[in-house]
Amino acid sequence: MEHKELEDKILLLRDGRLSREETRLAEAHLADCAECRALLADAEKIKLFAAPLPPASDRFVLSVMSKISKAETESPLNRFMSLLLNWWVPVLTVELAFALLLFLLPSGQQQDVTLESVIGTGAAISTADTAQDQRASYISNLLGVSAEEQ
Question: Can you give the residue ranges of every domain in the chain?
Answer without folding.
Answer: 3-45, 58-104, 115-149
